[in-house]
């Protein structure tokens, strides 16, 4: 049965030829064909009216185009099976979304044209991995913005085309203006579709400082487990303190900042009865506190630094101050005063003056008017008081320097039932916030002769409408016993307040700002719930 050498050689030759033929046939079978709906030439492919991105193309295709396709998005990893692509074009398609990682697996792609489609949204990482891309066109789509750093890592880019979109040049697009100023890529002239301040301008002409993108909000920071009717912040001995009158507990509660725990903690208390106001007053480095009570009279305490406690030094005339509702402190010509608004029928709002040893009654203002609030302010550099009353319109008093007393000057017309008045200034103009419990609270501006209405705010159980100034931000906070507290921010473009935030505070009565350790806090007293502390935080809208 042995074969001769000649027959053995022929057999081996036939076997090798058969294996080679089968191997070649196998390679031809595995070679991808041109997908249905596409036309393929030697190195190009054109797909029209396809419903999805095909996953198989001939391996020598380096240019791929999609026209009038029916798919609605380019999903992640759509082209991982065509790594040799150098040019990719989409035009007149119906998709409106480019997903994250849509073009992963294309290390050689140099030209990407996505034009005349309906794209409204692009993932921040849509172009991830396109390190060789030199030309990108997103022209004539429905783009209003682009996600920040969408071109990150595309260092080879030399040309970007964004024409024909409706780009809104707001803070979300500030990054693009910044990128345009340091990239080596060139962009055709493109125009802003909004906002009004930039509408019609060339994006190429904008600068990063063309955008005002820093805003702020109040974020809940700490909740205090007590009710309070007002709040006062003060500095004594270079330290910052806050004091709350607690009418139900019968105390003035003082807080200080814990620099280690980063919270506010108890510093001291003054025991009292039905406390409505605890007003601090620093005179010649001595701390005094006017404690106004509904029952048992009102008193003045002094901080004894050696004994490290508060000591009562004086009683306030109970015949004049029967039902105190507010206390204001102020200085005129180097002399220290405070005034107590009395809300009883038999009492009288009274000004007290420091004489070096104690406080004595300096002037009684109108009696029998049931005053609910007193505000000290300067109008045209002259000291004034505004008294709010449940029985008449707010009355304006002016300091008479010759008599060293306040004279009635005028009232604020058409403003009955005002509970309180608080003032603030913007760019040299004087404004006041007038609080009404039900109806409309108002903001008014001093025009040189009288206060005139600027803006109205619906009040639903409001006991406080307080202006708050923090850095360049001017706020007005309108409390409510029946709804959420509204925070308004001053808009310098319209010279009016605009709504910016809502706070959930039960029966708010007063607000006070404290700056400490480069942080700013807003204290909100609550008459029927927990007293709240908020931190004022900066927010960059361009991030």
Automatic annotation (TrEMBL):
Upper classification of the source organism reads:
Eukaryota, Metazoa, Chordata, Craniata, Vertebrata
InterPro entries assigned: Cys-rich_flank_reg_C, EAR, EPTP, Leu-rich_rpt, Leu-rich_rpt_typical-subtyp, LGI_related, LRR_dom_sf
Organism of origin is Echeneis naucrates
Keyword set for this entry? Cytoplasm, Glycoprotein, Leucine-rich repeat, Repeat, Secreted, Signal, Synapse
Q: Which GO terms describe its biological process?
A: myelination
User: Where is it located?
Assistant: Cytoplasm; Secreted; Synapse
Report what the protein is called.
Leucine-rich glioma-inactivated protein 1
- LRRCT domain location is 165-214
Q: Which superkingdom does the taxonomy of this entry point to?
A: Eukaryota
Cross-referenced PROSITE patterns: EAR, LRR
- Give the range the annotation lists for the signal sequence: 1-26
Work out whether the entry's keyword set contains S-adenosyl-L-methionine: no
What are the annotated GO cellular component locations? cytoplasm; extracellular space; synapse
What Gene3D superfamilies does the record point to? Ribonuclease Inhibitor (3.80.10.10)
Name the gene that codes for it. Answer: lgi1b
Q: What is its main location?
A: cytoplasm
- Pfam families noted in UniProt: EPTP, LRR_8
